[in-house]
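Today's session is about reading a structure prediction critically. Students often jump straight to the picture, but the first step is always the sequence itself: look for stretches that repeat, for charged clusters, for runs of hydrophobic residues. Only then move on to the predicted structure, which in these notes is written as discrete structure tokens rather than atom positions. Here is the chain we will use throughout the hour.
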Amino acid sequence: MIDRAIEVRAPFTDEVIGTIQSADHADVTAAFQRARAAQPAWAALPVRDRARVILRFHDILASRRNELLDLLQREVGKARRDAVEEVLDVLSTSRHYARDAERLLADRRVRGIIPVLVGAQIRRIPWGVVAVIAPWNYPLTLTASDSVPALLAGNAVVVKPDEQTSLTALWVRAALVEAGVPGDVVQVVLGRGDVVGPWVIDEADYVMFTGSTRVGRIVAARCGERLIPCAMELGGKNAMIIRADADPERAAEIAVRACFANAGQLCISMERIYVHRSVHDAFIEAFVRRTRALRLLPVVGWGGDVGSLISATQLARVQAHVDDAVAKGATVLAGGRARPDIGPFFFEPTILAGVTEGMVLCDEETFGPVVAVHAVDSDAEAVRRANDTAYGLNASVVGRDRRAARQVAQQLRAGSVNVNEGYAAAWGSVRAPMGGMGDSGLGRRHGDEGLLDYTQVQSIATQRALGFGAPAGWSDERWGTALLSAVVAMKRLGLK
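Below is the predicted structure for this chain, in token form.
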């Protein structure tokens, strides 16, 4: 018999905290069959009833938040304040979509080609079974906040979490079922992404994927072969611009959170900072001082500022990026080394200067607590260098003059830009869409788009009188001329 057991380990200690069973191909097929059979009844429920279920899920999460915070810390190794951000996100997202779903999903009437004679109706129809392929870094957010709008839209959902953080995904599924989602409508299939992931894509009607750009290309190609839609949030090499009018101390406070939240394991965290030369030295002094003061603690509970990296693999990647940069001439201003004395995968928050082309860290996403700082002479130079990347996920502009900072923000090629914040302002504004440009992905979370993307559009046009064929006794020429004249007259009447 093949052993399909996978150990789940706590990054703080590398101790085993659970064991999961990997799905085989038959398990995945069966999960989708159950979901597909259950989906029509779920979609037939009034949107209002589905929304009530999601609001009950919100309340369950709120009432058991400490239990969930403990689980996130144990399974991901993050500081508690970073775990709090995940819970806040899911609470906000659930309320947002539950309260807007009825409005967004309602049938809508629009004018037909000829007023009165033709009427048209737009309907929103669920895709069927949505696959949510979630990564390990934010397992609550990227399981629940993608499943919630898909479920509200009337889809069934099959979640494929990363094997390192499957316990959180199972917690989410149990809470959704407790809230009233039928068990077959929301399911979790476990296992390694390179094994189970392709089976999931081959069964799904729509795929929501979060992960690396490299894997995203593979997912998109497989979806393309099947002609099914997909949305994906991928990698980033996000840039922060600190303008000449910025308060160096305030800018440093923003930068610390923007660069080192979740130990830098955050797609929208900052890995590049472009600071105006006039405030460069003062900013560096404040940034280094604040960074060195951060507390690295392997504890479940409050007290630590920065948590652990997820695994030995991630630690090796971060160390390799730093070592390569230093070997090629970069200077370490803070951090720069692993801390096995604290925990097996801890790495100090690291600030580098002198990072140049040819260093791996210059162009590739590190996905760890490492940032490169560069001095610039103007906003224009900062914008040019910030945009010099294939990625386009998130960015930040810091300065006292908010209007001028917004003008800089509008020049940045990124799906979201934060003014006087690093990422939380844009991410937390759930009524505004969030997603990437370029190699950072397709589609959007949040906003109206984050729900409507889980539907396909059906248009129904009703001919109320006459028709498009010539009436009895009319020649085609006479009828064609009359139709053209009627349509031209619509402009004079101010009609679209």
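Discussion point for the tutorial: The mean pLDDT is 95.
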